[in-house]
Structure formats: structure tokens, C-alpha cells
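Supplementary Methods, section 5.1.

A reviewer requested that the exact input to the structure prediction be made available. We therefore reproduce it here, unchanged from the version used in the analyses.
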Amino acid sequence: MKYGEKEIREFDIEASEHYWPNKNEKNYTIDIELPEFMCLCPRSGYPDFATIKLQYVPNEKVIELKAIKLYINSFMYRHISHENSANEIYDTLYKNLQPKKMKIIADYNPRGNVHTVITVDSEDNK
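The structure derived from this sequence is encoded cell-by-cell as follows.
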């Protein structure tokens, strides 16, 4: 196994070192786009590809960019549905960041003439 594969497979998004203190008290928005998301279909095993868009207004913490990259890349070895992957990403990041607000958009590439976009937004979950 090459070093990058090992780092991705062993990555733990829950580790506190991946979250840094937010030194700014004002509200501001962080937009992160991850255009190379991949997971495996739980039924067929075929790869599914998506662009994940994360938008959040930080509270006390921000996420390190390398950490979000490794976390998103860790899905490439997992059999997980579109809905479950988007909700898991949201739940994990929301729990660890505790942002003022957050939105995840998982825009999946069409497969079999079906285009899926999953949006999970803290404004809808109050």
C-alpha cells in the first residue's frame, strides 16, 4: 500500500487536531468545494462520483483543509448510498465543528439517466 492510500484508510475525522480555533468573532462564510468525491454503490459496487459543496459559518472551530480532503477521500472505499453519504458528511462535520450554520450539497454525476443532488442544511433542521 502506498503512503497516500495508507493515510486515507487510517484517517480519523474525529481527531481534535483536525479542527482549529476560529480567531474571528464576526460572522463570515467558508465555502469549500470537493469535486472528486467517490463512493461505491451499495448494491452494484459501481463507483459513484460527486461534487461535495460545504458551506458554513464557523463558531469556535474551523476544519483544516487537508483534513476535509482526506475525510472526503476516505469514502472511495465504502459502499454507501448518495443519501447516506451526504447525511453522514453533514452529521460528522456539524457535530465536530458546531458551526453557526452549515449546508452540504452533494451533486452526483448522472448514472443510468439519473442525476441526484442531496442538500442538507442546518436552516432546515432547527
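The chain has a mean pLDDT of 96. These observations are discussed further in the main text.
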